Amino acid sequence: MPWSPLLSKIKWHTGERVLSAPEPPSMEEGWKAFGNRYFQGRYFKSAAVAYSTGLAQTPYSHTLRLNRALTYLRLGYSGAALSYCNNALAQTTLPSGLRAKALHRKAQALYGLGRWDEAEIAFAAVEKELPSEVATYQQWIKKCHKRRQESEAGTYDWSEMYIASQSSPRLDVADYRGDIEVTPLDPLGEGGYNRAEGYRCWSASCE
After folding, report:
1. pTM of the prediction?
2. Cβ neighbours of 102 (radius 10 Å)
3. Got the DSSP string for 4-47?
4. How far apart are CA 7 and CA 4, in angstroms?
5. Which helix (H) or strand (E) holds 199?
6. 54-90 pLDDT per residue, tens
7. Whole-angstrom Cα distance, residue 8 to residue 38?
């Protein structure tokens, strides 16, 4: 950042700014447009920097804060996104239209953190704010139920996971967090039984 104390004694040969460089925005709308352009180009880290720089100048901008939260969601920084959404929702001046966005992004952040119960409550809250989008949020709530079942019972739809893996390496499934039983494999290839999944694991053996 140009105002960083690390740069206070540095003098550039080109002067304070490169002549051919675009003039940086000086107002909230300018930084928002800057960030949106990077976001649409999928340069999410650059978008986050733009929104953050704008927030440094206009710290009470709800739009920049929520845009940064969305950018962090795209980067997989669910914890940071949740923090910014909670911060926005704590503001009494948050307009109702932005409140729905904040709740939606908060729910997505909780989902990304694997906090399925809280995510379900958050999606239900957005559903009340946006009754016209009931079908969309019912799907999110069903996904929360499914992730919770995977996490608690280790029940997975392997065919669905395989099909999904053909288009994306990042699968939308939960980690199993229950107990497992590990047993020795039969030397003749009979395999061992995995209690969590309820199927026999087969192992080939070399003579």
Report:
1. 0.76
2. 25
3. -GGGTT---TT-SS-TTSPPPP-SHHHHHHHHHHHHHTT-HHHH
4. 6
5. strand 199-201
6. 999 999 999 999 999 999 999 999 999 999 999 999 9
7. 28
